[in-house]
């Protein structure tokens, strides 16, 4: 399947990288193209056929030159991601359909114990279609789909799987690192 809006979005991100390859510069500028992509009726209609993801992301596009990836995440009603960080990478998280709670956490311990991380909820926002969230490196967060489920489009500065990302359990304080979500090829361009 080839979608013009996705191809245009990818071209805009490639152009931003050509101006300055630093994701800290690219990501804030990528919000406007992401917002435009989230408003595309063809993409919204297409999302109705995307498979629900449990601990995977659909891999729509991977850029051979700059390394960024475009993913899709389809959540069932009430489905929650585990509390996690994305290590050193930048993420732009956009809600295409449905509603979500985006929850940010703060770490309260000093990090001196390798498998312990005390975190608490610092901010919770209810968002709907068109919402865009910039997730900076090492930011601890989770997302929960609303009563009707949700579909998100995710731009990452690097494809997960080649590095370890943090995982947090608020009840036990346990901290561990894993490779991140599995990427299921699902080309849109």
Per CATH, the superfamily is Jelly Rolls
Which CATH C-level class is it?
A: Mainly Beta
What percentage of amino acids are in beta strands? 35-45%
- Low-confidence spans: pLDDT under 50, at least 5 residues? none
Could you list some keywords that capture this structure?
about 190 residues, alpha+beta, Jelly Rolls, seven-stranded mixed sheet, 3 helices, globular
Q: Can you describe this structure?
A:
The chain has three helices and ten strands; from the N terminus they run αααββββββββββ. With 189 residues, it is an alpha+beta fold. It has a single domain (4-185), classed as Jelly Rolls (Sandwich). Strands 1, 2, 4, 5, 6, 7 and 10 form a seven-stranded mixed beta sheet that branches. The radius of gyration is 16 Å and the shape is globular. The relative contact order is 0.24. The model has no long low-confidence stretch (mean pLDDT 95).
Give the topology:
Layout (H helix, E strand, L loop, with lengths): L3 H16 L3 H16 L2 H7 L8 E7 L6 E7 L7 E2 L6 E17 L11 E9 L4 E4 L4 E17 L8 E4 L6 E4 L3 E4 L4
Parallel strand pairs: 1-10
Antiparallel strand pairs: 1-2, 2-7, 3-8, 4-5, 4-6, 4-7, 8-9
Task: Characterize this entry briefly.
The protein has a single domain (4-185), classed as Jelly Rolls, CATH 2.60.120.10. Helix content is 21%, strand content 40%.
